[in-house]
Amino acid sequence: MATHPDPDAALMLRVKRGDDAAFAELVEKYKQPVMNLVYRNLRDATEAEDLAQNVFVQVHKSAHRYQATARFSTWLFTIARNLCLNEIRRRSRHPADSLDATYPDHEDQPARQFEDHKTFLPTETILHSELEQKVEAALAELPEAQRNAILLCRQDELSYEEIAEVIGCSLSATKSLIHRGRETLKQKLKPYLRSGEWKKTAK
Questions:
Q1: Are 123 and 183 in a shared domain?
Q2: pLDDT confidence of 104, banded at 50, 70, 90?
Q3: How far is CA 79 from CA 22, 56, 141, 155, in A?
Q4: Residue 26: how many CB atoms within 10 A of its CB?
Q5: Domain range for residue 14?
Q6: What is the pLDDT of residues 132-169, one digit of tens each?
Q7: What is the C-alpha to C-alpha distance for residues 11 and 86, in angstroms, rounded to an integer?
Q8: Are residues 68 and 133 in the same domain?
Q9: How many domains would you assign to the chain?
Q10: What is the pLDDT of residues 51-74, one digit of tens each?
Q11: Contact 26, 66 (CB under 8 A)
Q12: 0.90 surpassed by pTM
């Protein structure tokens, strides 16, 4: 249970009472983090957008059952992760459905980016873009549990306990997943982080 009052949980309780303005406020705050989590699991921009929208549809549909026993973000990311897992399982049963994502018609189309928290000079932009591609590739190669633990760890407001609740692991197992994931990423990205320029763009 959260140790401090959660303003987002208060907003969700307003949604439960039919307050659409409160729902819009939650969507505006969390649409980017949800999109990032979904995209890094599915690796397809169009499907990620559709599924991220479905996350908030499920939030709205489930509003009448919501209980503020944990942070709203924990509940939200649990829904997002479960929908991602369902989609990944569906793909494994019907791999042909994802052929378009694997072999796009427009190969020269740049990869979709969903966060841009900094402004870079032109040379820094190139380095940052290259590094982001390497980070995305390294994340995609991690086992699902490690990948989601790492991604959720990047959400500053989530504690290890809350991450554990989202991914359905014990606290010690979650810490281990994050540690192993970070070590794997460090090894995979080491060749790209040796120069000062790379390190600066990676911060």
A1: yes
A2: very low
A3: 19, 9, 23, 16
A4: 20
A5: 1-103
A6: 778 888 888 899 889 999 999 887 678 899 999 999 99
A7: 28
A8: no
A9: 2
A10: 999 999 999 999 999 998 888 999
A11: no
A12: no
What's the CA gap between 22 and 19, in Å, rounded?
6
Integer Cα distance of 177 and 22 in angstroms: 35
Q: How far is CA 134 from the centre of its chain?
A: 17
User: 3-class SS at 22?
Assistant: helix
In terms of domains, do 195 and 129 share one?
yes
CATH number of 2's domain = 1.10.1740.10
At 82-103, the pLDDT tens digits run 999 998 888 887 665 543 443 3
Q: Which two tokens stand for residue 8?
A: 């987002």
Amino acid letter at 188? Answer: K
- Cβ(161)–Cβ(39) below 8 Å: no
**What single-letter DSSP state applies at residue 98?**
G
For residues 191 and 52, what is the distance between their CA atoms, to the nearest angstrom? 34
Burial class (CB in 10 A: 0-12, 13-18, 19+), 53: middle
53: Cβ contacts below 8 Å, ≥ 6 apart: none
33, two tokens: 């983090």
Closest CA to 138 of 42, 33, 51, 40: 40
Alpha helix ranges (H) inside the chain:
7-16, 20-42, 45-61, 72-93, 99-102, 122-141, 144-153, 160-167, 171-189, 196-202
